[in-house]
Write a structure and sequence with these properties.
The structure holds four protein chains of four kinds. Chain A is 79% helix and 0% strand. By secondary structure, chain A is mainly alpha-helical. Chain A has one domain (3-24, 36-163, 184-213). The longest helix of chain A is centred in the C-terminal third of the chain and has 45 residues, at 178-222. Chain B is mainly α. Chain B contains two helices and no strands. The longest helix of chain B has 29 residues, at 2-30. Chain B is rod-shaped. The termini of chain B are far apart. Chain D folds into two domains: 1-77 and 149-214, P-loop containing nucleotide triphosphate hydrolases (Rossmann fold, 3-Layer(aba) Sandwich); 91-148. Chain D has helices at residues 42-49, 71-74, 93-104, 109-117, 133-144, 165-172, 185-191, 209-213; strands spanning 2-13, 16-27, 31-35, 57-62, 65-66, 78-81, 151-155, 177-181, 194-199, 202-204. In chain D, strands 6-7-8-3-9-10 form a six-stranded mixed β-sheet, with helices on both faces. In chain D, strands 2-1-4-5 form a four-stranded antiparallel β-sheet, with helices on one face. Chain D is globular. Classes of the chains: A mainly alpha, B mainly alpha, C mainly alpha, D alpha/beta. Chains in contact: A-B, A-C, A-D, C-D. Chain A binds chain C through residues 64, 116, 119-120, 122-123, 126-127, 130-132, 135-136, 139-140, 142-144, 146-148, 150-151, 154-155, 157-159, 161-162, 165-166, and chain C through 145, 148, 152-153, 155-158, 162, 165-166, 168-170, 172-173, 176-177, 180, 189-191, 194, 198, 202, 205, 209, 213, 216-217, 219-220.
């Protein structure tokens, strides 16, 4: 059991605790009924996703500043974990919207900017895979990561502003009763731990595959037709 | 009610699957093949 | 190194090359008119819903014409390996980027010179100075982003696929604000001043950001 | 006084090791030829020496300056001829050179001089895409010497130049420090007293010409 596997076990344990709180401890919402329990993980994974993309942003900025491979690896790790959490957020959001608003999708600011977030960082992962590995991929991915991070609040703002131009049904979410708030805070904390563990694991994977990429070459070069030790 | 179940089943499947897949990939990379090279 | 002179030299070179070959603008003009044609049949536009649908068709045509134009800005450079020759001079990458962005903006405006009158002709929507101002203001910010991302994907495989995927999400604020500006200019509800103010903010934000990023993208 | 000092130049392209631990010293005014078959790493080495490419590892000093940090300042003194001519097809020879004059911040009188040195004055107003491959190569050489650089890095300059290549290159490289990659050993012998042999990204022997060739 490597230390990463131990951390993973801890994270899973915490999520089980959060799950128990969500389904057993938290009261049922009198207005929306049991489906309201989607809220806990839906919002927690959105926050975790934003956290991951902050890691991508900082990794990108540090890489552009000092070309440190460590920063680039964190950015790579943060991006892929962030996309996973954004996917969870989107799907749960739609599954929650259907029973409440009758449609899977409404162009409200949060959902729209989360969708844009997903597309930008899916594009980030694609750019990273298509560019030649090494400095070029890291540099342009850093720029994409930074622009992506800036674009999300801008999209969120412009869609909210669009709402003011077209007054429509507004989703009122009133303050949470204490038990719900406690469950939410617990779920959020556990989700953030899971995100951190996932990033640590992905970081380790990136480090090893970087080394493996160079390690593989050393073997190839030494066995080149003209071995170094020729008399 | 079913939406609630489907939502959480999906979340557990995706997050769990991603965690499992990453751990397996990690085990591969740290496994015998790479340490053999570092002899 | 006087960056303004460099930027103007780069812009002039691009526009002179385009004028000599005349391949991009005619193609874009045709493309845009076809987009309006499709829009007309796709949305069953009539006098009643014209001012609601026409702005949408306008932005669709503009976005895809823009993607084609920006894809081309660096294609020629890459084929001739002249991008490297340009970067091998002491000229600063930001100035070179500014020059490419200016040239691309001019090409897009030329394309709009065909698009806007055609829109009025086909859909009977008004073509006032306010509509033109909104489209021009949005073009500036969209061009800055378009050229930067064209530079980013210039040396990457499957670049035609990547350019839209990376650029469109960043163009969304311009389409939201620009769309609203054109709609209110055509008599629909919504404040024209607010939309134009927003467009100006986005222009400033993204022109500054793209200039800062140019140094990292147009290098080596 | 050594004009170019490089040690331990190593470069990976993704998973492929292209250059490994190349060291070389070129004194001011000296001409060095880089020999080696295709894929030996000639182009990569020259791109690094011309400050067009930053290697994965290694150090490079040109005219006493750190080539990676002072890249932009050094480009006043480096003339680089790449594999591909890199010209604007729709622009004429003169227009191409005038454009690069503006970027190099050099007066446009240099255009005629450069065209004259490479013998392109007669075709000055023809569009670049209507020039023969040899003429395009001459125009690219004209561009490389436009700003009168002290160091010339030429990647196979003799390509498609025809029989007067040696005579033209002698004229162009007069009084400059030159690093030239080529396949033509005879040309290398005539122009460059020193040669560097590249095999599989590693340099063998930077001794004087007499040793390496015999």
């Amino acid at each position: 059991m490597s230390r990463h596997e131990r951390w993973a076990a801890v994270a899973v344990g915490l999520m089980v605790v959060a799950g128990a709180a969500i389904f057993l401890y938290a009261p049922t919402d009198y207005l929306q009924g049991p489906v309201q329990r989607i809220f806990y993980l839906h919002v927690s994974s959105a926050i975790a996703a934003y956290g991951c993309f902050t890691v991508v942003l900082i990794g990108g900025l540090v890489y552009l500043r000092r070309e440190s491979l460590v920063a680039d690896r964190f950015a790579r790790a943060g991006a892929v974990v962030g996309v996973v959490f954004t996917t969870v957020t989107l799907v749960m959001g739609m599954l929650w919207a259907k029973p409440i608003w009758g449609t899977y999708w409404t162009w409200d600011a949060r959902l729209t900017s989360t969708l844009v977030l997903w597309m930008i960082y899916a594009g980030y992962l694609l750019v990273r895979r298509l560019a030649d590995p090494g400095r070029q991929a890291a540099r342009i991915a850093a720029v994409v990561g930074i622009f992506g991070f800036v674009d999300v609040p801008v999209v969120h703002f412009s869609v909210t502003w669009w709402r003011t131009q077209h007054p429509g049904p507004v989703v009122v979410n009133d303050a949470l009763p204490p038990e719900m708030l406690a469950t939410f805070l617990l779920t959020m904390a556990c989700t953030l731990v899971l995100a951190a563990v996932l990033i640590a694991i992905r970081y380790r994977i990136e480090t090893l595959s970087d080394e493996r990429m160079h390690l593989a070459e050393e073997v190839k070069v030494i066995t080149a037709p003209e071995p170094r030790m020729a008399p | 009610m079913t939406y609630l179940i489907v939502a959480y089943v999906f979340a557990v499947a995706l997050l769990g699957g991603f965690l499992g897949w990453s751990l397996r990939r990690l085990r591969e990379l740290e496994g015998p093949t790479s340490s053999g090279l570092r002899r | 190194m006087n960056p303004v002179r460099v930027a103007i030299a780069v812009a002039r070179k691009d526009l002179k090359s385009e004028w000599r070959t005349r391949e991009l603008v005619p193609a874009l003009a045709q493309f845009v008119v076809l987009a309006l044609l499709i829009g007309n049949f796709g949305f069953q536009v009539d006098t009643r819903n014209a001012s609601a649908i026409a702005p949408g068709i306008l932005w669709f045509a503009l976005v895809f014409a823009g993607l084609v134009a920006f894809g081309r800005t660096f294609a020629a450079e890459r084929e001739q390996a002249s991008l490297e020759a340009m970067l091998m001079t002491p000229a600063s990458p930001v100035a070179i980027f500014a020059g490419k962005a200016m040239a691309a903006t001019v090409l897009l405006v030329l394309c709009e010179v065909v698009l806007l009158p055609a829109l009025t002709l086909f859909f009977g929507t008004p073509l006032g100075a306010d509509v033109v101002a909104a489209v021009l203001l949005a073009t500036v910010g969209m061009a800055a982003l378009g050229v930067l991302f064209a530079a980013i994907v210039a040396r990457v495989r499957a670049r035609e696929l990547l350019l839209p995927l990376l650029t469109l999400p960043l163009w969304i604020p311009f389409i939201v604000a620009g769309g609203q500006a054109v709609q209110s200019a055509m008599g629909l509800p919504g404040s024209y001043q607010e939309a134009m103010g927003l467009l100006l903010d986005f222009d400033i934000l993204f022109v500054v950001l793209t200039s800062l990023a140019a140094r990292f993208v147009l290098d080596e | 006084m050594s004009f170019v000092v490089a040690n331990g130049l190593t470069h990976w392209f993704g998973r492929d090791l292209v250059l490994e631990g190349v060291d070389l010293v070129v004194d001011t005014g000296e001409h060095m030829a880089v020999l080696g078959d295709n894929g030996a790493g000639k182009t990569t080495l020259l791109r690094i020496l011309a400050t067009a490419l930053r290697p994965t590892a290694g150090r490079l000093q040109i005219a006493g300056l750190d080539a990676f940090r002072e890249k932009r300042r050094l480009r006043h003194h480096v003339g680089y001829l790449a594999h591909a001519p890199g010209l604007y097809p729709a622009l004429s020879a003169v227009e191409n050179l005038e454009f690069f004059c503006d970027l190099q911040e050099v007066s446009r009188t240099r255009v005629e001089e450069a065209l004259d040195v490479v013998g392109m004055t007669s075709a000055a107003h023809r569009r670049a895409d209507q020039l023969s491959r040899g003429m395009q190569q001459r125009l690219a050489i004209a561009r490389a010497i436009l700003h009168e650089p002290r160091l010339l890095v030429l990647d196979e300059p003799d390509a498609s130049l025809g029989e007067d290549a040696a005579e033209l290159l002698t004229r162009v490289t007069q009084g400059k420090t030159v690093i030239m990659a080529t396949h033509d050993r005879a040309l290398a012998n005539r122009l460059c007293p020193r040669t560097l042999e590249l095999r599989h990204g590693r340099s063998h022997g930077t001794a004087t010409r007499l040793h390496v060739v015999t």
